[in-house]
Amino acid sequence: MSHSHNTEDTRGLKIGIVLNGLYAVVGLVAGLLTGSLTLITDAIHNLTDNFTLSVSYAANRIAKRQADSDRTFGYGRATILAALINASFMIAVALFVAVEAIQRLSDPVAVEGGVVALVASIGIFVNVFIAYSLSKNRKDLNMRSAYIDQLFDALSSFGAVSAGLLIYFTDIQYIDSIFALLIVGLLLYNTIKILKEAVHILLEGTPKDTDIETIVKIIEAHPKVIQTDDLHVWAIRSGYNAVSCHIVIAQSKLSESRSIVEAVKKSLQTNCNIHHSTIEVEFEESTKNKAHENH
Prior knowledge:
CATH superfamily of the largest domain: Cation efflux protein transmembrane domain
Order of helices and strands: HHHHHHHEEHEH
Number of domains: 2
Largest sheet: 3 strands, mixed
CATH class of the largest domain: Mainly Alpha
Shape: elongated
Distance between the termini: 50 Å
Radius of gyration: 26 Å
CATH topology of the largest domain: Alpha-lytic protease prodomain-like
CATH architecture of the largest domain: Up-down Bundle
């Protein structure tokens, strides 16, 4: 991640923490006073956002550290851990609210719809502004999880406005619980996707934006490369992919093999979004000898 991106990310997260905190307190107080589960859900979601934004902020700071003898690949995966923590926390909160909403369907609580709509409308503007401040670097999983969370906060606030207006004009109280469940469903859908992607990276799965067959074709497109073996592809952090492999090349001088490796690395970076390559060279003659010995 570039220095300018990191600075923008940090600024956006700071803005989010302050604004989210202020709105969450207002929303929670209003929700408790009006008895609106939708507004309380919206406020709790914003309070959890303050936790998740704080985790994202801390992870961004840690990720800027240079590689050392303990973390030879650097600290970039701190942001992946942050996304995992954030997603897990949001799922837990969503399930808690879902249980409360289901219980309220059979025993609705009287809600002041007008106040709900007014307070939630403020939340829409707050969340959209924060989402915009986080939108510059959506390729990073940590920042994308924070960005998506803010968009869904805006949607959550919109749902609260809709619920408040419907309750105000129809006096149907269980609408509050229905909208709370809809918001929870949408939140779970997107949060689970982020959780799966974070786990995929931590388990060193093949990055979604890469294709093994394409990588092999790119490597073997070099006229001197005969075969590719022991190929491994993984993401060190979001958007920073790595490859390790053995290549079999036609018998040549050692100096020539170095230029072949450099050419393959450059081709992988240009065509396959591979930023870190470890390539071991084997000569065709030596592989034939190994095959002969095995027989």
